[in-house]
Each structure stands twice: as structure tokens, then as C-alpha cells.
# Entry
Amino acid sequence: MPVTVLTSAKSCGVTTAALALTLASARASVLVEADPAGGTIRTGLLQGQVDAGHGIYHLATAHRVGQEALTQAFASHLVPLDDAGHRQLLPGLTDPGQAAALDRTWEPLGEILQVLADDDPGYDVLVDAGRLTLDTRRLHPTLTPAPLLYAADFVLLVVRGTDQSLALAQHVIEPLKADLGEHGSGALGLLLIEEGPHGAHQVGAALGVPVIGALPWDADTAAYLTGGGKPRRGLSRAPLLRGARTAGGHIEALAARRRLALDFSAQPDTATRLGSALHRLTRQGGPRG
# Structure
């Protein structure tokens, strides 16, 4: 299963898109809220039901103990996004000032996510990396979780079909291509939010990057995923979730073909050790609040 990182040049609905893809997945899925500017799902969709005692910040402390402790912490800090616990969340930072503490944790976390995706039967792994920040035309080492982008199967730049969104994306697309080409192992694509006059073909041509998936403009469903509240009836049939299922299927198919072409394989010792632990720990279910 793929590890897919979502990011944007400016706020384009990255978190909403990541939630839609996670909830629409046909398999078990995990969403990692890795935006250094701070997470919003805890106080948005989850309505404050998960306190600051759970979340990605605590992985930095565990990592100082070692990789096994980090793996244990990762699993123990997952919280369910559905009643069955098939879709889980690693909540984000509660304070942007915490981001620097994770500088050395992003890379080993990326290894865990790849093992989690490769484990049998494997998870769909989504990462909300927030707004892309550059430093001398490279990914900023603190304000962007660069190692997670480097380790991903797909990095999707979320754009809208508007002139403003395309203009902002054009400023970051070439540096992002170059940095991923030098340090990354995955493919770069676009996730189009279908707002505005420009369709997938126009957007892909303008940015020189293929549109991997498209999500319909569905303001009502987006408002629920952003702000929470009473669960919407028929949520799974909402246009946004239907579009996310289609986009997720396309991402998976492309990732499978790409992995076969690259003869992708994790390091046996790491994969066996972490995979066994993650298989056991994640299926025990995370805390509920």
C-alpha cells in the first residue's frame, strides 16, 4: 500500500483532502498529521475529544530512547477516526514551537510509515505535511517535514483550479521537483480540488506535473471534516468521499505499478522487526481520548 504525502504552496485544503482520502480508503488506513505549523483535526473534526497527552510531539521523546521505543510510541498515540478503529490518526502538534523537537524524528518516522504500508495486509498511509516552506529553493529543514516527503511513494501537491492557486504552485513546483529528485524515492503529482475554471488537463500542463487525482468541490462535507459536529448522514456517499475513493484507487494502482518497476523492498531486518511490532500494536487499537 502506498505512503502518500499531501502538501501545498498555500492553504488549499490539505487537511480536508487527507481526511477524505483516509476515511474513504477501502482498507485500514492511518493519517499522520505532520504539519509543523500545528494540527487542526484535534480541535476540528474530533471536537477536542483527544487532549494534548496524545500526538506526534511525544514521538520525539520516545525516539531519544531508541527505535523500538519510537515504534511503540507511534502505535500507542494513534486514535480512531471511526467506531471500528479501521481508520486511525496520529494527531498533530498543539504548538508550532514544538516542531524543532521533531527534526531528528522525521526520518525514522518515515521508515515506520513505509514498514506499516508494506506490512501484510498493509495500511494506506496518508501524511498531512501542511504548507510547503522552502529555504534557498530547498525544503526547509524545520518548517517542512522533509524526510517524510523523501520517504513517500507519492508526494501530492494540492492545488485548486484557480489562477491564484496555480500562480502560487508555479513558484514551488520546480524547487520541489529538484529536491525530491535529489533526495526522494517517490513520485511527484498533483491532487486537484475542483474549484475554479481550470480542469485537470490545464492544471497538469501549466505545472508540468501530472494530476494523480481530483476531488470535487463539496463545501458541506468539507465543512464537517474541518469543523466536526454531528456526523452527516450518508457521509460515505457524499461527493467528496466518492471522489476520494476514486482518487485513492488511482493512487494505489500507480503505486503498485511503480513499486514493481523499481523492485521496491524494505531492508529485511528492519522490515521484519518493525513490521511484526506494528502489526501487533496497531491492531490493538489506540486510545479514544
